[in-house]
Amino acid sequence: MVSFFSRCFPKRRKGQQQQQQWKEIEARDLESRPSWNAPDNTLLLEAFEWHVPDDTCHWRRLQHALPGLKEIGIDNIWIPPGCKAMNSSGNGYDIYDLYDLGEFDQKGSRTTKWGSRRELEDLVEEAKSLGVGVYWDAVLNHKAGADYPERFQAVKVDPNRRNVEISKPTEIEGWVGFDFAGRGDQYSSMKYNWQHFNGVDWDESRRENAIFKIHAPGKDWAQDVGKDNGNYDYLMFANLDYSNPEVREDVLNWGTWITNELSLSGMRLDAAKHFSAGFQKEFIEHVRKTANKDLFVIGEYWSGNLKDLLGYLQQLDHSVTAVDVPLVVNLCRTSYTKGGDLRKIFKGTLVQSKPENALVSDCRRCGKNCYTDNNLL
């Protein structure tokens, strides 16, 4: 009888075998699955991209789009760094003045690429009325577009091993003088000079491009940064020195100021791999204490190495959320692999190890080589 039914219903028997196989697979993988003991997810929209038209209308466009975004389930919007850039078309990552949100006539315009301060405030008010949170993109690693150069001692470093000096100290001329003449002392009286930085990439006197570390007592790269290239403190432009108490105080004050001015729900710390993790921790604690105790903070520490991400989170006492770059890599590889296995998608990811600190993001330009391009965060 068994033989008769086996021959009459072979598909049913095969289906039962497959079902049993899946149960065995699930049992084996149970311990490796992520723990979901984490707060409910919210949906964050990147409300800009690099090639937005340079027409100073973005804040108005975004305000007009907000009701529709709310209707489709957007909880928070991440807006670009709306501080004054080194020129009128700059996206804000070439940051000049943290305290100019499109209000003062500096660097060729009053507005930023994105619009005026008044239009930014209108956008924020609209978001608040709809219950949509606003996350600010905070560029705190460097300054660009200095008002004048200064002369100081510096040494060249090996670009592939930044902790190795390859020249003797010599005098160079670097663009490190910031007086913010258009703003004056409004909001902040801080002016920047060479003592507030630890590195530049241009010697005006010799018209030479290199990575120059400023040479003076107490000057060095921050040590609590990414270890790529030996030390990844220096990224671009004039690199801020967070061992300088005046720099720390000014940026801490800015964090409180902008969070209160714009009723921010969150911040993204740009280039988190490239400036002091100790200062980042201090900054977050300060802003949560003085402006918004529930401020949501994203640390843009771009690394496909889970160990690096866990180390960064530990340095900040898990006070931030980090982009789950390993998950981006896994998704990319699986999508380009014939017969890709989704059961392994969480292997070696933040979602698996620290789900409460993992930000899951898309990556639009992740090609077949699975390069983790930092185009989203």
From TrEMBL:
Span of domain Glycosyl hydrolase family 13 catalytic: 42-364
GO biological process: carbohydrate metabolic process
Gene3D superfamilies: 2.40.30.140, Glycosidases (3.20.20.80)
PANTHER family xref list: ALPHA-AMYLASE
InterPro entries per UniProt: GH (IPR017853), GH13_cat_dom (IPR006047)
Sequence similarity: Belongs to the glycosyl hydrolase 13 family.
Top-level taxon of the source organism: Eukaryota
Protein name: Unnamed protein product
